[in-house]
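Give me C-alpha cells for this 204-residue protein.
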Amino acid sequence: MNTTTEKKRFTTQDVMVIAAMMVLTFAVYGAVGTLTLPFPFLYLYCSAGIQEFFCATFYLVVANRLNKHGILMVWSTVFGIISALGGYVFLLPYFLLVGVICELVMLGRDSYRKPLRNAMGWSCYGLGMIIGNTVPIWAAWESYVAKASTEGFSQEVFDMQLNMLSSPWHMIGACAITVALALLGCLFGQRILRRHFQKAGIVK
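Here you go.
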C-alpha cells in the first residue's frame, strides 16, 4: 500500500471515516460549550482548548488512517459550513483560510503520520478556533449579540468578550491556553492510538 501523502484522492470509505470522527467532534464541541457557558472565563478562554484536547484523538485516527493531504482543510471547511448555516455566513471564508494555513503547516511526505507534524497542524487548527470566536464580534457585533442572547449568553459573557478583545495580552493568553491543551490532547491521543487503535489494526 502506498503510504505517502502525495496525490491521493479521498475515497468513499475515507469520507465515511472523516464523517464519523467529525460527528463525535461536534458532539464534544456542543457538550463543552454547554457545560462551560455558565462560567464566562472557562467559556471564553478555555473552551476551545478543552474541545481540541478531547477531539485530538478523533483527528489523529483520521490522520493516521488516511494519511492524505486535505484532512484539516475538510475539517475546517465543514466547521465553516455549519457556522454559516447557523447564521454566521462570514465565518465560512474565515475557516476556509484556516484550512489553507493548516494544510501549509502539514506540507511534506507522510506528515499525517508524524506525531510532531500532527501536533503542529492540530494546534494551528485550535488557534483558528479560538480566534474564530472573536470574528463575529468584529464583523457583526449587533447581530451576534441578538443571536447569542437567544442561546443563553449572559451580559457577563458579553462584557468579558469585549474586555478580552480590548487587551492583546488577554487574547494572547487565550491562544496560549488553546495551543497548550491542543498539544496535550495530541500527546494523549497518540497514547490512545498506540494502546488501542494500532493494536486493533484501525490505524498504522
